[in-house]
Amino acid sequence: MSYSNFPFDFVSRVLQDDFLEGEKLLIALEKNVPISIRLNKLKKKELDFPFKVEIPWCNDAFYLNERPQYTLDPLFHAGTYYPQEAGSMFLDAVLTELTLPEDIKILDLCAAPGGKSTLIANFLKGKGLLVSNEVIQSRAKILKENLTKWGANNTIVTNNDPADFQRVNNYFDVIVVDAPCSGEGMFRKDIDARNEWSNANVELCTGRQRRIVMDVWDSLKNDGYLIYSTCTFNSSENEDNINWFLQELDAELIHIKSEDLPRGRDNIGHYGLPSIVDTEGFFIAIIQKKGEPTPSKLTIKSKGELINIKDKNQFSNYCKTEGQTFIQWKEFIFSFPEKYADDIFYLHHHLKTIKLGTEIGEFTRKGWNPKEGLALNPTLLAENSQSIEVTREEALSYLHGDTFTLNGQQGFLLLTYKNQPLGWIKHLGNRFNNLYPKDWRIRMRIDNK
């Protein structure tokens, strides 16, 4: 049987590796990619997709019978669900089995575009603190957008190199490293991934992955967990790297009980093998840092450019204020849980942050304007916010950046679709200003939907 669609060296290795089931894996990689999504339980919205089956290793996750056109679904833009590869959702099973503190602090180190971060936000259920990081600036902006749409207030987004986290020593209880890899698990859907693969790239990725983990290791607390994952099959980037970490670091391998995904070589980690389960390709393993846990010391020399806002009257009609700290950063107003105020100042001082909790508004020459982050945050948005329910066609026009005839009282109003907030308009009586962020707007044609 010919496997000319795959790199020759990849085929040779797979056929010789009994663990990968040889031809069964190659056949599976030629089949259609499974379609899967996770629901956002913060939004409390049951969706009417034609579900195929629940994904057993992740809460509120489903396979779909067919791929929706997400761009033309207003509920996707409202953050009510997130399309994510099923295998990578195994992170939920891992987090569920670990013994974790209630006041947990998690770093998602290589977070863009946001699949694992939104999963972690679901897992946290409003408790703890999630730091989502992406080193590439353009991808960090996408990460910020997706986390804003998800609407979790206990999240911040940073744009840092892994080595920068050495400035926050002994801080995180869990670090998730979804490491850049050779992408063998992407072969099922991405022809470019096949064309770019080589043994030399596998070797390059292996070294890069080791550097990333070593750079961030000191920011993990003693007794904390590092969750390492890739979307590839080879042992060099997976089991061999885990063994290297165990030798070089004061760490031990952690096993979890779940058998939903098959265990890796030598009982190290778990795999999403498309020849066995309905996934693309995924590997995940957990190591724990040895040593007695010690509390982290937050050294806050100065709050710098962050201004603590005491007067909340200017936005209290739009935003719930109890238990929240509000700060002004440049012209923008951010809200985050009061109990993490020191953490926010500490992290902002040591890292390049681009999102602090929820961006609720901004000061302009004409006064205070509400921002998209507030509209999409169900725990912060005031219950008496004035809103207008729109049709699907009107919702798509709004998301496209258009204006149209819409009756309503003057002032800032919330547009909702199926009772899910989409964003703000400023109604002027006979027309309205569309306040949906320009960078987020639908760019494709919507008139032939």
Describe the structure.
- With 449 residues, the chain is of the alpha+beta class.
- Helix 4 (90-97) packs parallel to helix 5.
- Helices cover 24% and strands 25% of the residues.
- The chain has 3 domains: 8-289, Rossmann fold (3-Layer(aba) Sandwich), CATH 3.40.50; 298-382, no CATH class; 386-449, Archaeosine Trna-guanine Transglycosylase, Chain: A, domain 4, CATH 2.30.130.60.
- Strands 5, 6, 7, 8, 9, 10, 11, 12 and 16 form a 9-stranded mixed beta sheet that branches.
- The protein has helices at residues 8-16, 23-28, 74-77, 90-97, 115-124, 137-150, 191-196, 199-216, 239-248, 341-350, 372-375, 392-400, and strands at 36-39, 51-54, 61-64, 81-83, 105-108, 129-133, 155-158, 172-178, 220-230, 251-254, 270-272, 282-289, 306-308, 324-329, 332-337, 353-356, 358-364, 367-370, 387-389, 411-417, 420-427, 432-434.
- It is built from 12 helices and 22 strands.
